[in-house]
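Batch job 17 of 40 flagged for manual review because the log was empty.
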Amino acid sequence: MHRQETGRLLELAHRDVLTGVLNRAGFETFLERCLEQNQGAEMALLYIDLDHFKPVNDQHGHPVGDQVLQQFAARIRNAVRPSDTVARLGGDEFAVVLLGVRDLDSAHRVADKVVTLARTPFEIESLSLNVGASVGVAFGIKPGTGWRDFVATADSLLYQAKRSGRGQHASVLH
């Protein structure tokens, strides 16, 4: 019984309470496991930030903003393969880890889906809310490098996408 409770608490410690996807700690643990299993070469990371999300909270309140985050997480989960992993890293930042990806084009297709999903209005109560998403895409962890550099690359590319006009993705081979 104690072991089950410990396992349940560990699972809760790695889940975002609001959205049900992995939180930052769960995301980092997942990446560590992937590298231990030598899956880094065929891995893509989509680092996602919602565009124009702050005005939703400012104008409609945090409960409405929370519903947007919940709906967005659900949209992403429904759009990716069961083998892919979705995480909310904090605020309106999300990540998707794609495993078994053989080329950057495959990651681009998923990034395009994410941008489209975010662009689709969020219907909450009587509101129709428009946000959007910018995505940084990193592909392939070189042997001997860690996941932190991989995440930093994707994060940097995310801000490149934002500077280029938002609602798009930017990528590079890592």
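Reviewer: the log was empty due to a logging misconfiguration, but the result itself is present. The chain has a mean pLDDT of 88. Unflagging and moving on to job 18.
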